[in-house]
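Model: You mentioned two targets. I'll fold them one after the other.
Researcher: Yes, keep them separate.
Model: Target one:
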Amino acid sequence: MRINMRIDMSSVVRTTLELPDPLFARLKARAALKQVSLKQLLQDFVEQGLDASGAAASSVRRCAHDLPKLQTPLQQQGVTFSNAGLFELLEP
């Protein structure tokens, strides 16, 4: 997908989206079903996506003590994982 943006004097950003035809057809159908413009539907989707990703990022924190504890090292394709190794992956 390519996005071209231009800012005009009314502080609205105009954007060009290149979408596959089937996706565009689905968007048009959804807009018609909800009786809103395609512009309004896309704006709502973008806002929902940004709100959801911000909430998810702030509420989900990884912590090593939430991991299951391994009784013996786990082997997979020549790589050995241990509790200490998993902890190092989680904690920067």
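Model: Target two:
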Amino acid sequence: MAVTSYTEEFASTVSPARLFKALVTESHVFIPKAVPGGIKSVEFLEGDGGAGSIKASGLFKAVEEYLVAHPEECS
């Protein structure tokens, strides 16, 4: 397992509250639908989705191989 962190800013027509809900609080539902070829599964290891919950994301084999082959793009 790894801990990752990044910062990015962009303009959007979607409200900040709706983006936060989709990308943070409901990411286990939204991200596998948005990136069907990348994220295989998302499961809660601890908690129920509230503050302090821990989620594990399962990646497809092709994505794992790409990340191992191109570590400089992951930092």
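Researcher: Noted. Anything on target two?
Model: The mean pLDDT is 78.
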